[in-house]
Specification:
By secondary structure, the chain is of the alpha/beta class. 35% of the residues lie in helices and 20% in strands. The chain contains 27 helices and 31 strands. Strands 7-14-11-8-10-9 form a 6-stranded parallel sheet, sandwiched between helices. The protein has a 5-stranded mixed beta barrel with strand order 17-18-19-21-20. Helix 12 crosses helix 13 and helix 13 runs antiparallel to helix 14 (388-399). The chain is elongated, with a radius of gyration of 38 Å.
Length: 790
């Protein structure tokens, strides 16, 4: 029987054993990480989801097991989806054996979709033993006011309702805030117990929260979505639902899983309200308006769509299948899947092989460890560095919640607590004890995973940063300025230490835990360790690239040539190059131009007009027939294709001022094959001869091209001047004697017949020395005044 959480697994086993009148470990037992209670008599084993995956990996047939129950399947964890996919695959591989039976259970399951996946399996509806729950709606609550709104609702309910209260809040921060408010409001109320319930509490603390309230007392349980299902809290008859939950979401640009607060689904709201009717009629208060209920998403987004897929990818590689070979309710998306494979490749867990990916021996060893691939890689590599004991301690710390939240980011402080070098308080002791137990288990697993001799002499914590770098090479960071709190990470992200954090004395950090919002440009560093960059060169050599780089410095006055060693976006080391390859030098010049734009080249007005003439003819062809013999010489094309047209003309430039001596005209004219240059002069001439014989320059920088000419020089011409064989009419700017536009037109004949007469009235008195004939179509054209010869 598969349960989504440790607490639910233990509670389910205890409940079933109690109904049989037995202790856990007899006919009903459980298995989870760090703990197991089974015996030869055990017939029902309740397991957590990761345990099922490892059982399937070692025995796809699950020999000796007749039925697998997926409880609370509506939660759609990635481990449950994977377990179901692998179980179905195993059934198909072993068709000659009695089929393994499957049962999927949930109070709010999308049963139609599941039934289709299971070849139209029968759906059994059971009302169960439940009691009516009266639902009340309230006003909308902003996220920042959740804790206060829940506290107020709890106080009101205590005054008007009977029984204990289960209040749902998004996360720990809101639970602690509501706890403080309730303690202040309920001072002196000896019969009320306030009990937090969330995943980072110890198992013992969680069990105390769900235990029945003592006789004569009432309990207020402040819980996350951990209490939505699987758990029955005795005595609860009131549910207060904030309407929010906090879910992990994978952020592909950073490779991080971030917690995101969002509205619950309708299915989750029903699950929560149902907690009030387990043992007697109850009441549920929803802190949102009734009309908002219909707008809630029907079901929560499955975890496989919003989580880091590296653990899933490693398990499938170990199994020897690709996602499209399995049956899924929701298959892994292509982009996150590819990103997961690339991370596993960096961790040496897989390699490309014949257009597929193949697991390595190192990857098989990683898959055998019940850890995220990052930490599994770190543990296995630590043996080669004679640091396995230290690595197991670090893995145990990173697998549990932080015992020193808010006390600086240095993970060494946590190691001192774990090893007893600093004393733990009563709140920290259960967690530290669990971490010690986990570290011992990791050491046992590591000894079984390797034939090398163990060392256990790694008490020195100076190299803990190297271990973190092995697990998180993309989160190695370098200080932006000495003593500052800002770091740049190998993945390109910015990260900040808290003001006053002692780790600000470290130029280099290896970061294990980050936090922040996706919209923010910088993340907060929560756990990290100082690291010597020389260790990176020695131990992460396969992740470090070496490249020859030419860069212009001092505003282009100096070309620096060097060999750079980089970890992602971070520069580790540089050394000057004795000789510079001409191709690299050429590329450096082109990169400089690309960064600054085409205006960095020695353009002239003649060249810009030449470019515009070509584009004008190309545009005309494209509009008429959809293609053109004229090439695309737009700025965008030229900038994108610098290598193609400008590289042969760059030569051995050593100073940016030499760019102004480039033969840009030759480079551009080379782009027009023969006979296009001749056609260009014919179809898009630089000048147009007007009736007076004057050759007037055409301005191709505007569209359509502009011919700016004195009005009197156009007397006698009826047709609007055109180019491209008459396909493009020029835009006439008819000028006054003072060279100011009197009219802008593409229809010269219409102007003579209509607007000219108004222009004549306005201009004749202002410019009496210039001709303003009544009939401009028969009047001789004039360049100058009436007395002038032309």
């Amino acid at each position: 029987m598969l349960e989504p959480r440790r607490l639910a697994a233990k509670a389910a086993a205890q409940r079933m054993a109690q109904q049989l009148g037995e202790a856990v470990g007899e006919r009903v037992g459980y298995r989870m990480r760090l703990e197991s209670k089974v015996s030869a008599r055990t017939r029902i084993v309740v397991v957590t989801e990761g345990v099922l995956t490892r059982m399937l990996q070692s025995d796809p047939s699950l020999d000796g097991i007749g039925l697998v129950i997926f409880d609370e399947f509506h939660e759609r964890s990635v481990d449950a989806d994977l377990g179901l996919a692998l179980t179905l695959y195993g059934r198909e591989l072993l068709r000659d054996q009695p089929p393994l039976k499957l049962l999927l259970m949930s109070a709010t399951l999308d049963s139609d979709a599941v039934a289709r996946l299971l070849d139209d399996a029968p759906v059994i509806d059971s009302e169960g033993r439940s009691y009516p729950v009266t639902v009340h709606y309230g006003r909308a609550v902003e996220r920042r006011d959740i804790a206060t709104a829940v506290a107020e609702s709890v106080v009101n309910s205590l005054q008007q309702d009977r029984g204990s209260i289960l209040a749902f809040l998004p996360g720990q921060a809101e639970i602690r805030a509501a706890h403080r408010e309730l303690q202040a409001r309920l001072q002196g109320e000896q019969d009320i117990i306030i009990a937090p319930l969330f995943g980072d509490l110890s198992l013992e603390q969680q069990q105390r929260a769900i235990a029945p309230a003592p006789e004569g007392q009432r309990k207020v349980v402040l819980a996350t979505s951990i209490a939505e299902s699987s758990l029955t809290i005795d005595g609860v008859s009131v549910v207060i639902d904030s309407g929010y939950s906090r879910v992990p979401q994978f952020d592909p640009p950073t490779g991080m899983v971030r917690l995101h607060t969002q509205r619950v689904s309708r299915a989750s709201a029903e699950q929560r309200a149902g907690r009030a009717g387990r043992l007697a009629p109850g009441v549920a208060y929803r802190l949102w308006p009734q009309e908002q209920q219909a707008r809630l998403q029907g079901f929560a987004e499955p975890e496989i769509r919003q989580t880091d897929l590296a653990p899933l990818a490693l398990q499938l590689l170990h199994w020897g299948v690709t996602p499209d070979e399995l049956r899924w309710l929701d298959p892994p998306a292509a982009a996150p899947w590819q990103q997961a494979l690339e991370l596993l490749q960096r961790l040496q867990a897989c390699e490309p092989h014949e257009q597929l990916w193949r697991i390595t021996e190192h990857g098989r060893a990683m898959a055998a460890l019940p850890l995220h691939p990052r930490l599994a890689h770190m543990l296995l590599k630590s043996r080669q560095l004679h640091m396995s004991a230290l690595a197991c301690d670090v893995a145990a710390l990173l697998s549990e919640r932080d015992p020193l939240q808010g006390e600086g980011a240095d993970i060494v402080l946590r190691l001192e607590l774990l090893r007893g070098e600093r004393s733990a308080d009563s709140r920290q002791r259960p967690l530290v004890q669990r971490q010690r137990q986990q570290a011992r288990q990791f050491q046992q697993l590591l000894r079984r995973a390797s034939d090398e001799s163990d060392d256990n002499d790694s008490a020195n914590t100076e190299r803990v940063g190297l271990l973190l770098a092995l697990a998180y090479p993309d989160r190695v960071g370098r200080q932006r300025e000495s003593g500052g709190s800002a770091y740049r990470l190998a993945n390109g992200r910015a990260a900040m230490l808290r003001d006053g954090d002692p780790l600000r004395n470290a130029e280099w950090l290896a970061v294990a835990q980050l936090g922040g919002n996706r919209q923010q440009s910088s993340d907060r560093i929560y756990l990290a360790a100082a690291i010597d960059p020389q260790w990176l060169e020695a131990e992460l050599a396969d992740m470090i690239c070496s490249q020859e780089v030419l860069e212009w410095q001092n505003d282009g006055r100096q070309l620096v040539a060097e060999r750079q060693r980089r970890l992602g976006k971070l520069l580790l080391r540089r050394e000057p190059l004795a000789e510079v390859d001409d191709a690299l030098r050429q590329q450096a010049v082109l990169d400089w131009i690309r960064q600054r734009g085409l205006d960095a080249l020695p353009w002239t007005d003649v060249l810009r007009q030449w470019q515009a003439r070509v584009l004008c003819l190309r545009r005309c062809d494209l509009n008429e027939r959809g293609d053109s013999d004229w090439p695309d010489l737009s700025d965008q094309w030229l900038l994108t294709n610098l290598q193609q047209w400008l590289a042969p003309f760059v030569g051995a430039i050593t100073h940016i001022r030499q760019i102004q001596q480039l033969d840009l005209s030759a480079a551009l004219h080379n782009l027009l094959p023969w006979p296009l240059p001749q056609w260009l002069d014919e179809q898009a001439p630089t000048h147009y001869s007007v009736p007076t014989g004057s050759r007037i320059r055409i301005d191709y920088s505007q569209h359509p091209p502009v011919l700016a000419v004195k009005l009197q020089e156009m007397f006698g011409q009826q047709q609007t001047p055109s180019i491209a064989g008459g396909r493009i009419a020029l835009m006439l700017h008819l000028l006054s004697p003072a060279q100011r536009p009197l009219q802008v037109t593409q229809d010269l004949l219409s102007f003579w017949n209509n607007a000219y007469h108004e222009v004549k009235k306005d201009m004749k008195g202002r410019y009496p020395k210039h001709p303003w004939p009544d009939d401009p179509l028969t009047a001789p054209p004039k360049r100058g005044t009436k007395k002038a010869r032309h």
